[in-house]
Amino acid sequence: MKIALGADHGGYRLKEYIKSFLQERNVDVVDLGCADTTAVDYPTYACKVADQVSEGRVDQGILICTTGIGMSITANRFARVRAALCTTPEMAVKARSHNDANILALGGSVVSRETATDILDAWLKSDFNNVDRHGRRIRQIKQCALSQVDPIALYDTDPEIHAVLRLEKRRESESLNLIASENYASRAIREAQGSVLTDKYAEGYPGKRWYNGCTNVDRAEQLAIDRARDLFAADHANVQPHCGSAANMAVYFSQLKPGDTILAMSLDHGGHLTHGHPANFSGRLFKIVPYGVQRESERIDYDDLARLAEEHRPRLIVAGASAYPRIIDFPRLREIADAVQALLMVDMAHIAGLIAGGCHPNPMPDSDFVTSTTHKTLRGPRSGLVLCRDKYAGDIDRQIFPGLQGGPMMHVIAAKAVCFLEAKQIGFQDYAQQIVRNAQALAFTLSSRNIRIVSGGTDNHLLLADLSPLRVTGKKAAEALDRAGITVNKNMIPFDTRSPMVTSGIRLGTPALTTRGMKEPEMEKIGEWIADIVRQPDRDKTIDAVAEKARALAAEFPLP
Ligand code: PLP
């Protein structure tokens, strides 16, 4: 047993006495001061001892000041520390056995040497017990600490930005988020992303950097690379793209010349801006041939895609979408690409988490390149990723650095490593499956209220509701739902006659609410509320009634 001891001037004498007492019992004592009765500040010693306990460098700590109060208050600010101020042996027994306390705080002017000896005896003989009952309460303490943590330095430096964060947190917790591209990253991911790694410049790749001092960040990046490759069974991973658009740009620039032809999903049918929008770099630099869905089935028209490939002989075929609710047939796309000697890139930004969780086929075996964001169903930090076959590894790495980017964001790369680790855990498969079940339950509820679902349902995390039969625009519906605390986005439906700023549809996705723990029963309720509102988007009474129920439901499912 290793115990760290600390005291201020008010606790110095008792500390010296306790030190001999412990040493006589063969306890390994680390004396962290103070050294005499000269006046000192108690937080200095409380921090030294609490830090050792928090980091696991000692088993327990003992802190003494005049009353023990300042010591216990300070020590309890450290993660994993449970400091208990004890004045009787009975309190010491309970502190160990019920609260799993790991620091004993004593008051030098409150307890005599004899009482201190009895307290110590009781403390050393007691162990944490009844792990079920008391363990549950310890977990609750941890949970409560996590939900309360407030950015203290930010409050002092910039109260206005602190207020933005506080309000955004409240908005997130009080509303129901059905934006298909959003999620709630775990606390571990946010800790990595908000960490000291933001300070480091590391142009280059692990082991080959321009700057010195990269040993630690090299390790973070290598972990992210290895985990990404493992998660998606990829030959090569580049984890440096700052976002999904940068990942797509890296693939295009590594393989194409300006003016080359790309066959990609039409934006009106679900494709992304970077798949050829005229205002985007993709549409401005390359010749884009769009493919789409069949009018009746509203599923990708693979025969037409093959015909277009034959006719236009693209250099690259891009698959993947921002608003397509069905499984994508990657082997079929590979066949089509091979028939015209085109490269195949799959942008799995939306479905990466479903792929990691085994709920959607993995595009990697059929593709030359796979790009992704890491913040949608994959639930990581806001960022991007490129995976590719070995033979393209050099092209991709050179294109990302120095071709497109300078210093990588090492804090975000570390957060991506955590994200890939989380996605490999068994619970993530359950999460991915629940996302899909939730989307299907939502689609079913809306259909049963006679709201038309594009393609008749969904195989993934999102669905598109066609509101044109109700003579309601997507814009109007999304605004009305927003007033009720249900966040969705307006979205074009295939063959939409309205502009992208108005639209005939809304897109609904379940990754975020599934992260909060919601399941089919909640989706049914939310589906009913959505149906009530989109049918009468101007009826304030309905909106107010739903707003109240939505807030109450959100309160039952806290953010991670
Ligand atoms: N690809 C697809 C399919 C997307 O849906 C998105 C974002 O919504 C992106 C790429 C671009 O991601 P980012 O916003 O990180 O640039």
Q: What does the average pLDDT come to?
A: 96
- Which topology of the largest domain does CATH recognise? Aspartate Aminotransferase, domain 2
Question: Could you give the order of strands across the largest sheet?
Answer: 9-15-14-13-12-10-11
The CATH architecture of the largest domain can be given as 3-Layer(aba) Sandwich
Distance between the termini: 35 Å
Look at the structure and name the CATH superfamily of the largest domain: Type I PLP-dependent aspartate aminotransferase-like (Major domain)
Draw up the topology in text.
Blueprint: E1 2-7, H1 12-24, E2 28-31, H2 42-54, E3 60-65, H3 69-75, E4 83-85, H4 89-97, E5 103-107, H5 113-125, H6 131-148, H7 152-157, H8 159-174, E6 176-177, H9 187-193, E7 204-205, E8 208-209, H10 215-232, E9 236-238, H11 244-255, E10 261-265, H12 281-285, E11 287-291, H13 302-312, E12 316-319, H14 330-339, E13 343-347, H15 352-356, E14 369-373, E15 384-388, H16 393-404, H17 410-424, H18 426-448, E16 452-453, E17 462-466, H19 474-483, E18 486-487, E19 489-491, E20 505-509, H20 511-515, H21 520-535, H22 540-556
Parallel strand pairs: 1-2, 1-3, 3-5, 4-5, 6-18, 10-11, 10-12, 12-13, 13-14
Antiparallel strand pairs: 7-8, 9-15, 14-15, 16-17, 17-20, 19-20
